[in-house]
Write a structure and sequence with these properties.
mainly alpha; 238 residues; 0% strand
């Protein structure tokens, strides 16, 4: 245990996802769960966090330009998406990971910016399904799938016939973040189990982890953000 704690890799695992221009680290010294592919990876879900950090820097730059130049943020996000898609389509270097995910992130920002005017209707959902089918196998397949996923999620979320009970809150990110290590531990603990047995065990365990994460981490953090936002608004009014 002392050797484990003295190993630099143990600490790089903690801080590497927060480094904007470094990829996350997935291995811990001496840790392995199964002989299967990725059997030594502790949490593969962490791969998204450095990319998110980079996209937040891009979004911060857009906000800065909007404030300094007094340009509408909605127009800037749409312009950034058009530029990103243009680079993705025209230049081979921007068709590879991680550049192709920039368009997906900016598409989400555009959806949020125009949330007040985007209709949530079945015909538009069908149009995005058709767009994805047409784009399959081409350079815009990832982008079309991202748009379909985002709009489909919003469509289901705002569909009055599909309302969840009021006591169900947003456990999704915790489920996503903790499902991978839970699956790895279960795969180690049940080497006899196939994928269906592992899913049967992992789904409720991941939901429980998401529930705990929401109550102890995410919900208090969002409440803190609201307090800062309210304080900033009061200062502007003063």
């Amino acid at each position: 245990f002392g050797e484990y704690l003295s190993h630099r890799q143990s600490y790089r695992y903690v801080y590497s996802p927060l480094l904007v221009f470094k990829d996350a680290q997935f291995l811990l010294p001496g840790v392995s769960f199964t002989p299967r592919p990725y059997g030594a990876s502790v949490n593969g879900s962490l791969w998204t966090i450095p990319l998110e950090m980079r996209m937040y820097v891009v979004l911060w730059l857009l906000v800065l330009v909007a404030k300094v130049c007094r340009w509408p943020m909605t127009g800037l996000t749409l312009a950034a998406l058009v530029v990103g898609l243009g680079l993705h389509t025209l230049h081979p270097a921007f068709t590879e990971y991680p550049f192709k995910l920039v368009g997906c992130f900016l598409a989400g920002a555009v959806f949020y910016s125009y949330r007040a005017v985007i209709p949530y209707t079945g015909w538009l959902l069908f149009a995005f399904v058709a767009l994805f089918v047409l784009a399959s196998g081409g350079r815009l397949e990832v982008f079309a799938f991202a748009v379909l996923t985002m709009y489909g999620t919003l469509y289901v979320a705002y569909c009055p016939q599909l309302k969840l009970p009021s006591f169900v809150e947003d456990y999704s990110y915790g489920i996503y973040l903790y499902a991978f290590p839970i699956q790895q531990v279960l795969a180690w603990a049940m080497p006899w189990a196939g994928p269906y047995w592992l899913m049967l065990a992992a789904v409720p365990a991941s939901w429980l982890a998401g529930y705990v994460s929401w109550g102890l981490v995410e919900k208090p953090a969002l409440a803190m953000r609201k307090r800062f936002s309210q304080a900033g608004s009061r200062q502007q009014l003063a």
